[in-house]
Amino acid sequence: MSDQSDVKFRLNNSELWGGLIGLALGGFVVWSGLKLKLGTINDPGSGFVLFYTGILMCLFAASIMTAALTEGGPTFGSRWVNTRWTKPLLVIVCLIAFSFALNPLGFLLSSIPLMLLLLRVVDPVRWPLAVPIAVLVPLGMWWVLKRLLLIQLPSGIFEIG
Amino acid sequence: MDTLINVAHGFGVALQPVNLIYCFIGVFIGTLVGVLPGIGPISAMSLLLPITLSGTPESGIIMMAGIYYGSMYGGSTTSILVNIPGEAASVVTCIDGHQMAKKGRAGPALGISAFGSFFAGTFALIALMLVAPKLASVAIAFGPAEYFSLMVLGLVVLTFLTQGSMAKALLMACIGVVLGAIGLDSITAQPRLTFGRLELIDGIGLVPVVMGLFGIAEVLFNTEQVIKRDIINTKITHLFPSRADWKASAGPMSRGTVLGFFLGILPGGGAVISSFASYALEKRLSKTPERFGQGAIEGVAGPEAANNAAAGGAFIPLMTLGIPPNVVMALLLGAFVIHGLQPGPLMITQNPGLFWGIVASMYIGNLMLLVLNLPMIGMWVQLLKLPYNILFPLIILFTIIGVYCSSNNVFDVYVMIAFGIIGYFMRKLGYEPAPLVLAFVLGPMLENNLRKSLILSQGDLMTFVQRPISAACLLFALVLLVAPLLPALRKKREMVALDEGV
C-alpha cells in the first residue's frame, strides 16, 4: 500500500476501523457473558468463557488500534486500488437479491436469474452461451436433487420446482 | 503382526466396490480442485460434506480424505504449467516448476512431482499406521486439562503461522470461539447468543460458515482481479524422470517427506508450512543454491514430497486425539460427527474397520492419483483452459445447493451468503479466516474441557501447570505468543507465514 505512512491519525485508516469493529464486538461479547452469568471458578456458568473471550477480543482489538495509530495503516480506498471493485460489489448485490427472492420465489425462479446475472456481470459471457447455462444448470441440479436424491428445494409461492 | 492383520482388515474394507468408487470420486475431485486455481480442498470438502450422509461412514470419510490428498497432487500441475498455485501448498512449486516448464522440462517436473507425492504419501501412511495406535494408547490417559491445553496450543500455532498481524489472527480465533458458543450450552442447556431465533438453538453449521468464508469470499476476491494464465502449450513429454533427475531428487524427496510428516502432525501446522520449510532446507543444503529459482528439480521434488507427507501426518492428531490440526481436518471431523462418530483415542479400538479402512484407502488413492496425474495429464491441461467467467457462477450455484442440502434449511443459505460477504471484507482488511474456522470447531470442545477441568479441580488453576503435558503445551503456546514481540523471531514468523492456515 503506497500511502501507508500518510494515514496515521486519519479517520479513513482501515486498520483503525477494523480494530474499532473488533472492540465493539468484544464489548458485546463481554456484556453477553455477564448477562448469561459467569458462575464461580469451581463451577463456571454459561457466560464464563464468553466473558473472558470478550475481554481477550477487546485486548487484541486495542492492540490493532494502537498499532494503527502509532504505525499508520492503509486507507480504505488503497485496499481497492487497481482492482475491479465494482465486480465483487455486483456479485454481492446479486447474492443479497437472491437471498430475498429464494423463499418467496423458490429455487428455480430465483437461481436462473441469479446465474444469468452472474454470467453477464463479472466478465460477460456471450448471450447464446449464458442463457442455456443459466437455465439448464439450475434445472439439471433441481432434477438430480428432486428426482434422484429426493431432496426438496424451496418451491416458493408459485410452487414451481 | 497385529498391524499386518489390521492392515489386511483395512484393505478388506477399502477394496469393497462402493468404497473404491468413493475413493476414486474423492481423488478425482481432489485433483480437479487442486488443478483449478480459486477453489481449494476446503471449499470442495464443505461442498461435498452433505453427500457423505448418503453412504456409510467409511465411504464418506474415504471420499473426503481423497479430496484432501488428491488436491495436493493436482495443485502442482497448475503451479508447473501456469505459474499459478492450484492450492496454497503448491505456491513453492511455482518457483522452480514453472521455470523447468519454460525450459521445455514440464514432463520431468510433473513426473517428479507425482512420484515424489506418491513416495511421500506412502511413507506418511506407513508412519500413520505405526504411530497412530501408539499415540492413541497414550492419549487415553489425557484428561480435560491436557485436551484444553492442546487445543490452546493448536490455535496459537495456527495464529502464529497466519499471514499478517498476529493480533488480527488472535482476534479471529476469539471470534471463532464465540461463534462456536452460539446455541445451547452443552452443560447447562441455556441458550446463548441466539437472539430469540429458533434456527440458532443448535448453533451455526460448519458448512455454511466454511462455504461462505472460503467458497463465496474466494469467488468475490477473484472477480476483482483479471486472472491471466500463461499456460505452457508445448507437448508434455518425458514424464518419467531421467536417472540424473532421480539422483538429484532422491535426497530432497526423502528429507521433504520426513520434514513434512512431522510438521503435519503439529497442531496448526500443515502442508503449506512444510513445503516452504522443505524448499528453504534444500536451498540451504545445496552446493549450487543459485540454481534455485531457475528450474532446479530439487525445488520441486522436496516441497511436493513435503506437502503430501504433511497431508498424511495431519490425520494423526485427528484420529488419535480427536483434535483437528487444521481447517481441512476440522471439516473431516465434521464428517465424522455427521455419522455420529467421535475420533479420538478409542476410535482405533472401537471402530477398527473405519480407521484401518481409511488408511488402506489412502494407499489405493495414492495409486489412483499416480494414474490420474501422469497418463491423464493432458485432460487436466485442457481443464486449465476453462474460462473463469463461467466457472465462478457455477461455483456460487453449487455452494448454494451444497449448503441447502446439508440441512434442508434456507437459513443456512443466508448464513453462508453473510459469511461470504464478511469473509471478502475480512480478506481485504488482512484478517485471515483460517483461525476463525479452526476456533469455531475447537471452541465448544475447548470450553467444555476448560469447564470440566475447573469443576474437577475445584477451581484450582494450577491443574493446568501441574500436569506435564498440559504445562508443556501451555508453555510452548506462551513462547509463540511472546515471540512476535522479539524482532528476530518476528522476522522468522513473517518468513513462514501462510496464505491460508491449512
How would you sum up this structure in a few lines?
The complex is a heterodimer of chains A (161) and B (502). Chain A is mainly α and 161 residues long. Chain A folds into 2 domains: 4-79, no CATH class; 86-148, no CATH class.
Secondary structure topology:
The complex is a heterodimer of chains A (about 160) and B (about 500).
Chain A: H1 14-35, E1 39-40, E2 43-44, H2 48-71, H3 76-79, H4 86-121, H5 127-148
Antiparallel strand pairs in A: 1-2
Chain B: H1 2-14, H2 17-35, H3 41-48, H4 57-82, H5 91-102, H6 106-139, H7 144-161, H8 166-181, E1 183-184, E2 191-192, H9 206-223, H10 243-265, H11 271-285, H12 298-313, H13 315-321, H14 327-338, H15 347-350, H16 352-373, H17 377-383, H18 388-407, H19 410-428, H20 433-456, H21 463-466, H22 468-482, H23 487-496
Antiparallel strand pairs in B: 1-2
What would you say this structure looks like, in words?
The complex is a heterodimer of chains A (161) and B (502). In chain A, 67% of the residues lie in helices and 2% in strands. By secondary structure, chain A is mostly helical. Chain A has two domains: 4-79, no CATH class; 86-148, no CATH class. In chain A, a hairpin with a 2-residue loop joins β1 and β2. Chain B is 72% helix and 1% strand. A two-stranded antiparallel ribbon of chain B has the order 1-2. The model of chain B has no long low-confidence stretch (mean pLDDT 85). The interface between A and B is large, with 65 and 61 residues.
